[in-house]
Amino acid sequence: METYLPSFHLEGKTAVITGATKGIGRAISISYAEAGANVILISRTKSDLDQLKTDLEMRGTNVQTIIGDVQQYKEIIKRVDDVIGDRSIDVWVNNAGMNIRSEAEKVTEEEWDQIINTNMKSAFFFSQYAAKKMKEQEYGKIINISSVAGHVALRTGVVYAMTKAALIQMTKTLSLEWGKYGIRVNAIGPWYFPTSLTEKLLQNEQYVQDIVDRTPLKRIGELKELAGTAVFLATEASDYITGQTIFVDGGMTIYGF
Ligand SMILES: NC(=O)C1=CN([C@@H]2O[C@H](COP(=O)(O)OP(=O)(O)OC[C@H]3O[C@@H](n4cnc5c(N)ncnc54)[C@H](O)[C@@H]3O)[C@@H](O)[C@H]2O)C=CC1
Ligand SMILES: C[C@H](O)[C@@H]1OC(=O)[C@H](O)[C@@H]1O
């Protein structure tokens, strides 16, 4: 009898994750390892990378680590090229991101440059590099971690929102250009999840209440719920999906009034 259940495993696949050692990136890295992927973890902090590598290797995962700041994306691409050799890159997750929350009139050029370079410029040039490798095998999955802030207006900073909106449009345009090579480009748009990026905000009871009031599911997300979407977009289960942004948001982006 024919089967319709796609595989949700990543056995034999190589996945690269930026910002891999904390929060959403760490959850994605662990879930990919659990799905059987070989992982290449990119982060700025050697101790965090060493710890996660040890933990994952204890579970039998093939782990390679690269220390680097994604703002220096050329340097990181060189290091990825060194470790990947002639292996394929099957999945690339542009997760690293940061925010400096301030009102528009107070944004400095330095803050603009840091947010734009970290969240947007690096993601584009990493995608360009990953696509070169994926074209050779005529298959690949690029996953950009955007935000609901790229789709609706939040109080958390215009420059950050611009970068997240840019990732949504970059996802659409790259999926159009690279679809003929079998490269799928999708994005995930999270609402609030408990990570170091949101830790201070989520310690404020009123702020959390404001979030819950705007969220049909009446709660903040759990990292496992976000990792599930990242696994789906990395596996053959999503092979006919490209150019899309999946908002993992408890329904927030559909809540008009
Ligand atoms: N936590 C949340 O509620 C939401 C997070 N996001 C996005 O999810 C992604 C991950 O964020 P979180 O896990 O929440 O934050 P996090 O701060 O806990 O983790 C971000 C990771 O990216 C790394 N990173 C930041 N700047 C870097 C740089 N220049 N070079 C290399 N690594 C760098 C950090 O070291 C850290 O490992 C970000 O793109 C963020 O914009 C989007 C919507 C909501
Ligand atoms: C949902 C947003 O992306 C969220 O808002 C913030 O202030 C943080 O920067 C998160 O990214």
What features would you highlight for this structure?
Rossmann fold; 257 residues; seven-stranded parallel β-sheet; binds 1,4-dihydronicotinamide adenine dinucleotide; 7 strands; binds ligand LFPNKLMZ; alpha/beta; globular
General description of the model:
Helices cover 44% and strands 15% of the residues. It contains eight helices and seven strands. The protein has one domain: 3-Layer(aba) Sandwich (Rossmann fold), CATH 3.40.50. α1 (23-34) crosses α8. The protein is globular and about 50 Å long. A seven-stranded parallel β-sheet has the order 3-2-1-4-5-6-7, with helices on both faces. The chain has helices at residues 23-34, 46-58, 73-84, 109-137, 158-178, 199-202, 205-213, 223-234, and strands at residues 14-18, 38-43, 63-67, 91-94, 140-145, 183-190, 245-248. The model has no long low-confidence stretch (mean pLDDT 97). Bound molecules: 1,4-dihydronicotinamide adenine dinucleotide and ligand LFPNKLMZ. InterPro entries: NAD(P)-bd_dom_sf, Sc_DH/Rdtase_CS, SDR_fam, TR. It comes from Salirhabdus euzebyi. It is an enzyme of class 1 (oxidoreductase). Keywords: NADP, Oxidoreductase, Rhamnose metabolism.
